[in-house]
Amino acid sequence: MIWRGFPVFGLVLLAMAALMSIPAIYAVALGDWHIAAGFGYSMAVTAIAGCLLVVAMRRRAENAGAFGEFALLLATLAIAPLAAAAPIAAVMPLLGYEVAYFEMVSMITTTGATVFDRLDEVHRAVILWRAVVAWFGGLVALVMAYAVLAPRNLGGFEVRGDSGRTGAVGRLSGDPVWAGGKPSEAAGGRLARAISAVTPVYAGLTSALAVILLALGHSPLQAVVLSAGVLSTSGVSVEHGPASTASGFFGELVIAVFLVLAATRHSYGGPGRRPFRFDTLPHDPEMRLLFVIVVGLSAWLYLRHWIGVLELDEGGAAAGSLRALWGGFFTVLSFSTTTGYLSADWESARQWSGLDSPSLIFFGLAIMGGGIATTAGGVKLLRAYALFKHGARELERLVRPSSISGAGARKRGLRREGAQIAWIFVMMFLVTLAVAMLVLSLLGMTFENAMSAAVAALSNTGPLFPATTGGSWLTSVTPEGRIVLVVVMVLGRVEILALIAMLNADNWR
């Protein structure tokens, strides 16, 4: 893809080099010159590679077809991490380049599958670099939704009945109304407009959360890393364990609010859109479905814990029951947005009840995912909503076969064509998941570990694997398995339906 005569991937490498200056400066501030030199040399090499690519491909004709757009996306998610892994491999040579590459792919795809089992032994500049790459990956996901997926009826927009567009899935037909786009706008123009619309809001929300967490008692590094992990839904953190140990309940409450903002496209404004307002969320079908899922499962988990307490004859302490209720609510919300943070009260509530962790519920939440045009992964809430409405309509027809569907043409389109394409995507998602599980099993993983790793990678919910199996991405997965999971993580971020549309030569023009 070309923008104003410059190859976009070359600009991506230059942006990656510029981002390396952040941990380099931080290492200098800490007085660790060896770490700073590793980031500095990697920054210089990446910048030189980006400049050479820009000079070599400058002034070429722009390719606005699907192939060029998705080739850029795949290069950003699969090739750019090679550059991002260079400083980690330089400052941690015993780790190996393959492991560092896996770490960076998991960050840029907002999966957050970290290979570091003891984060307290990892240099703080490396931890900051992980958060920076994860934040950049979230920005890539949002820009991709604006500039690539939405104009081509992909990424969940293929099921919308009120998109204001016509055209086949994968065929360029102009941006939807919410993105304020022009019909068949050039790829470079769409990309620039998406960056200008998304970046201020995305950076502003991240900064706001960091300031609030800093005021609540977190260290500057904790606040920055945690805010990047929340807004990018990568689940990256400074230490393993609960999301907010420094600020307790109030910190988790603030994080929960920003998780909701990260899970809806309404948080990110665009040209021609109204400013964000909280009263618009109840009218969004995705947010209504998210509310039902989180509240319903939290209530079920609360009753499950409560029954466990009664069986153990531990009494009914109000404080303990409220902690169990909040621990379930926060954890369910976190996995629903494919972030994967655990509440500080989750483990205590589980031990208090004497019951095992409901891993299958976590699998279901991660697979369902968050909203369309967000940093969340998974199937997406709008597709699940379309299937739910279609199922409800079919049940109604069983009771009253002569009934006529109302609610307008848009909602009828959501229940019919939208549900059909959503079902196709779900089937492709499950087939991809089954293939990934089979390959991982052939590489020596147990069925439980293979299933957990495949779900975590395809839904971009990296913390799911250690949370459900107690395993490690470094020791529980072979190097060959990590290479397979790299492919699965990229597929989960790009979506298999988008790749199939890219392979259709009719959409290349």
From TrEMBL:
<dbReference type="GO" id="GO:0030001">
    <property type="term" value="P:metal ion transport"/>
</dbReference>
<feature type="transmembrane region" description="Helical">
    <location>
        <begin position="128"/>
        <end position="149"/>
    </location>
</feature>
<keyword id="KW-1003">Cell membrane</keyword>
<comment type="similarity">
    <text>Belongs to the TrkH potassium transport family.</text>
</comment>
<dbReference type="Pfam" id="PF02386">
    <property type="entry name" value="TrkH"/>
</dbReference>
<dbReference type="InterPro" id="IPR003445">
    <property type="entry name" value="Cat_transpt"/>
</dbReference>
<feature type="transmembrane region" description="Helical">
    <location>
        <begin position="289"/>
        <end position="307"/>
    </location>
</feature>
<dbReference type="GO" id="GO:0008324">
    <property type="term" value="F:monoatomic cation transmembrane transporter activity"/>
</dbReference>
<keyword id="KW-0472">Membrane</keyword>
<keyword id="KW-1133">Transmembrane helix</keyword>
<feature type="transmembrane region" description="Helical">
    <location>
        <begin position="37"/>
        <end position="58"/>
    </location>
</feature>
<protein>
    <submittedName>
        <fullName>TrkH family potassium uptake protein</fullName>
    </submittedName>
</protein>
<keyword id="KW-0406">Ion transport</keyword>
<feature type="transmembrane region" description="Helical">
    <location>
        <begin position="249"/>
        <end position="268"/>
    </location>
</feature>
<keyword id="KW-0813">Transport</keyword>
<feature type="transmembrane region" description="Helical">
    <location>
        <begin position="483"/>
        <end position="503"/>
    </location>
</feature>
<feature type="transmembrane region" description="Helical">
    <location>
        <begin position="194"/>
        <end position="216"/>
    </location>
</feature>
<dbReference type="GO" id="GO:0005886">
    <property type="term" value="C:plasma membrane"/>
</dbReference>
<keyword id="KW-0812">Transmembrane</keyword>
<feature type="transmembrane region" description="Helical">
    <location>
        <begin position="421"/>
        <end position="443"/>
    </location>
</feature>
<feature type="transmembrane region" description="Helical">
    <location>
        <begin position="360"/>
        <end position="382"/>
    </location>
</feature>
<feature type="transmembrane region" description="Helical">
    <location>
        <begin position="70"/>
        <end position="93"/>
    </location>
</feature>
